[in-house]
Amino acid sequence: MAEPVLQINELVKNFGALRATDGVTLDLRPGEIHALIGPNGAGKSTLIHQICGTLRQDSGTIRLAGVDIGALSTADRARRGLGRTFQVSSLVSEFSALRNVMLAVQAKQATSFGFFRPVMRDVSLIEPAMAILERLGLAHRARLPAAELSHGERRQLEIAITLALQPKAFLLDEPMAGMGLEGSKALTLFLDGLRQEAPILLVEHDMDAVFTLADRVSVLVYGRIIATGTAGEIRRDPAVRTAYLGDRA
Ligand SMILES: Nc1ncnc2c1ncn2[C@@H]1O[C@H](COP(=O)(O)OP(=O)(O)OP(=O)(O)O)[C@@H](O)[C@H]1O
């Protein structure tokens, strides 16, 4: 079996007496979408925060492409190839959609080549940034300030920015939230192709998207993974049905 791109081992995080993640072990293999589901308060966000470094784990390890990143800053983890979208927007709202993506393209070039140039004067950033906006169906909105985009378009723009950074693994935290039916369908189709570029750890409440996309699903309940398997296996798992899915399976 291929080496995992991301390997999380026995991760623990306590908030006082509450154990929010309780020995979580999971991996992300090349080319896959691994969905993480579970009820509200199960510890999904806490886990994502630990992987990307905004929260430090109490114990356990996080390896990206074989390297232990568990003690690195958030920025260093991103530089090493952890591509994360946030539940809370990371866009510069007064900048155009295009300029937001150009900044990300430039940030990637700067880590690769070690220098910065003024963004808007750098025409070499426009073409790759426009190509990414086109892939997300946002090219026609390129010149609008991010603040004027719809909620769904801003979520897509965040993915565009993450894509521009050419990560080794994507961490997508509820990308379908607030997207509407058509938006969710389009994003599902897009994510289906995105896994070829880098594997995706997908935290998502939209079960249609999860069961359509995920190669594997892990179910987190009270900070522990109670099952990992294919969509079919998870749907049939009696413990999962009791703890979470019920008649949604
Ligand atoms: N900073 C914090 N301090 C104290 N408790 C926290 C903190 N962050 C999260 N928790 C608690 O940890 C548990 C896990 O919360 P978390 O937000 O990770 O769950 P979640 O699965 O992401 O939920 P949701 O699906 O609602 O986003 C909850 O009981 C929550 O109240």
UniProtKB/TrEMBL annotation:
One of its GO terms (molecular function) is ATP hydrolysis activity. One of its GO terms (cellular component) is plasma membrane. The keyword Transmembrane does not apply. Keywords: ATP-binding, Nucleotide-binding, Transport. Residues 6-247 form the ABC transporter domain. InterPro entries: AAA+_ATPase (IPR003593), ABC_AA/LPS_Transport (IPR051120), ABC_transporter-like_ATP-bd (IPR003439), BCA_ABC_TP_C (IPR032823), P-loop_NTPase (IPR027417). It holds the Pfam family ABC_tran. This is ABC transporter ATP-binding protein. It comes from Rhizobium deserti.
